[in-house]
Amino acid sequence: MNVFEKHVLPNGLRILTAGMPQAKSVACFVMLAAGSRYETRETNGIAHFSEHMFFKGTERRPSARQIAGEIDSIGGEFNAFTGKEYTGYYVKCAAEHRDVALDVLVDMLRNSKFDSEEIEREKGVIVEEMNMYFDTPRDYLEGVYDELLYGDQPLGWDIIGTKETVRGATRETFLDYLDRWYRGPRMIAGVAGAVGDDILKRLEELLGNVQDGVPGAPDPVAWEQTTPRVKAHSKQSDQAHVRLGVHSYPLDNPDRYNLALLATVLGGGMSSRLFTEVRERRGLAYYIFGYNQSYTDAGTLFAQGGVDINRIDEAIQTIVAEFKRIADEPVSEDELEKARNFAKGRLVLSLEDPKGTILFGLRTEVLEDKIREPDEVLAGFDRVTREDIQRVAQDIIREERLNLAVIGPFDDAARFEKLLSFS
Question: Which CATH architecture does the domain made up of 5-207 adopt?
Fold first, then answer.
């Protein structure tokens, strides 16, 4: 059974709807197939900065307070998020207020003033957000790891940008970025829940005259690796944070479901191999997990944990050993079934509310230019075999492709290199 309906307007803008008869609320989204990966070195951070500025005032709603007040007056929630390959804006509210939500959302995205004084004020907010990010090792570790993996190209840069690029942004910086990427073919409106019978007509009225045009695409990612690599960020702390991983597959790879269950066996949930071995048996970490992050033309399978500074070597060696074991030995039938049910269960739970449902559809449409229905994903998990998992593990988990990022009171990254060995 199909959950989503898709329509394309003459300007290339796509509309995705998911009616949920049981819902009393509606989730209204606009997502862009554009994120920090679509920036230059000089404009790094502008996608995220733009997200902030859309909430600062339009001609009809001149201030952030008026925009927030209108959503508060209908009891709604609204927010935005910026990733490396997409940006999203949403309002979720009671179904009776759908048109107010859509009007505010589209007004923000199409008529924001980008007032120069407001931009200068917001620079201080972004810099403080940056300081918070840098002071939170569990979050900042992602940036250290991505720079190690991808180097000086957009996937290797922080989404939030640098203090220099943020402070250097002008009104023209925003307008140039938006004029290039915020066009019909890269924009998808999504509505789920009690969507209403006239939703297509309403969205065409609001978005039918968004500028058309093909804005191009970011440069493809490039990487090569022949030896294990380490990057350490020295910071005084009471806990070390480590992320160890390998390059994996892009989103549309035929082995996507095999890779997902491989990541689940390795580090999904509190009975996964990493959680059991690193935390429960050895007491080396409070948090530890494994995950696969795929982009349109790249991917990485990694483990991350916050570990005892004095036992960091043992923690890294234990994680390395679990990577090697899952490549050397087939997973058991019981492990496979548990991982399969875990992945399927998490997907089903995420689809229980309008926001989760439309997010699922929008992500596949934005990143893959097609709808991937939940039933297709569930069937994909059902097809995975033990042999599939081991084949994928042996393909991507190799000693020469290990990458280790560390944050902690360490000045010498080379001291960790000897730990990245399968022998």
Answer: 2-Layer Sandwich (3.30)
- Exactly one of 5, 39, 42, 51 is catalytic; which is it? 51
CATH of domain 229-419: 3.30.830.10
Q: Do the beta carbons of residue 300 and residue 292 sit within 8 Å?
A: yes
Nearest to residue 354, comparing CAs of 91, 1, 100, 109? 91
Provide the 3-class DSSP secondary structure of residue 387: helix
Q: Do domains 5-207 and 229-419 have the same CATH topology?
A: yes
The dihedrals phi and psi of 268, each to the nearest 5 degrees, come to -100, 110
> First vs last Cα of the chain: how many Å apart?
49
**Is 18:355 a contact under the CB 8 Å cutoff?**
no
Cβ neighbours for 389, distance < 8 A, ≥ 6 positions apart: 258, 261, 262, 265, 326, 330, 331, 336
* Residues forming beta bridges with residue 300, ordered by sequence position: 247, 293
Could you write out the DSSP letters of every residue in 220-288? PP----SS-EEEEEE---SSEEEEEEEE---TT-TTHHHHHHHHHHHHSSTTSHHIIIIIIIT--EEEE
Name the strands in the sheet holding 240-247, side by side, starting at the edge strand that comes first in the sequence. 229-234, 403-408, 240-247, 299-307, 285-294
Q: Would the CA dihedral through 280, 413, 401, 421 be positive or negative?
A: negative
Each domain of the chain, given as residue ranges in start order, spans: 5-207, 229-419
pLDDT for position 213: 82
Task: State pTM to two decimals.
Answer: 0.95
Helix axes 46-53, 171-181, angle to 10 degrees: 100
Catalytic status, residue 122: no
pLDDT in tens, 106-154: 999 999 999 999 999 999 999 999 999 999 999 999 999 999 999 999 9
By residue count, the chain amounts to 423
Task: Specify the pairing of strand 403-408 against strand 229-234.
Answer: parallel
Cα–chain-centroid distance for residue 395? 25
